[in-house]
Amino acid sequence: MNQMHMEVQVRLKCRACDGQGVVDSPAWAAWRQAYLDYESITRMTTLAIREFWHAFVAYKRLHPQPTEPEELPCRVCRGEGAEYRWVTLAQLLAGPVLAGG
Ligand SMILES: [Zn+2]
């Protein structure tokens, strides 16, 4: 018996960027991690902040910030925030596709 095979295209939120279409630049993440610890900055006294600022300026001279943008288009969804997948009606009705599986 010849069963009809039918597929539909579903639009799913991109899991790589959580639908944002952009991801944080790894270069910026590395730069921040190497120097900036926001948590500790908020706990600093005024004097410590001033010292931190001088150290920060000195550091920036040695380690310039990355020139690329802080956010890059997601490579998985090419900035669209969504993935498209062809699935059979049976797969769609079974559920896991819509649950992100
Ligand atoms: Zn994406």
Q: What is the N-to-C succession of helices and strands?
A: EEHHHEEH
- Helix-strand makeup class: alpha+beta
Largest sheet, order of strands side by side? Answer: 1-4
How widely separated are the two ends?
A: 30 Å
Number of helices: 4
Mean pLDDT: 83
Rg over alpha carbons: 23 Å
The percentage helix is 25-40%
Low-confidence sequence ranges: none
Can you describe what's shown?
It is elongated and about 75 Å long. The strands form two sheets. A two-stranded antiparallel ribbon has the order 1-4. A two-stranded antiparallel sheet has the order 2-3. Helices cover 38% and strands 20% of the residues. The model has no long low-confidence stretch (mean pLDDT 83). The protein folds into two domains: 1-23 and 72-101, no CATH class; 26-68, no CATH class. The chain has helices spanning 26-35, 38-42, 46-62, 89-94; strands at 7-13, 22-24, 71-73, 82-88. With 101 residues, it is of the alpha+beta class. The two termini are 30 Å apart. The structure holds zinc ion. Zinc ion (ZN) is lined by residues 14, 16-17, 21, 74, 76-77, 81.
Strand and helix layout:
Elements (H helix, E strand, L loop, with lengths): L6 E7 L8 E3 L1 H10 L2 H5 L3 H17 L8 E3 L8 E7 H6 L7
Antiparallel strand pairs: 1-4, 2-3
Zinc ion binds next to loops.
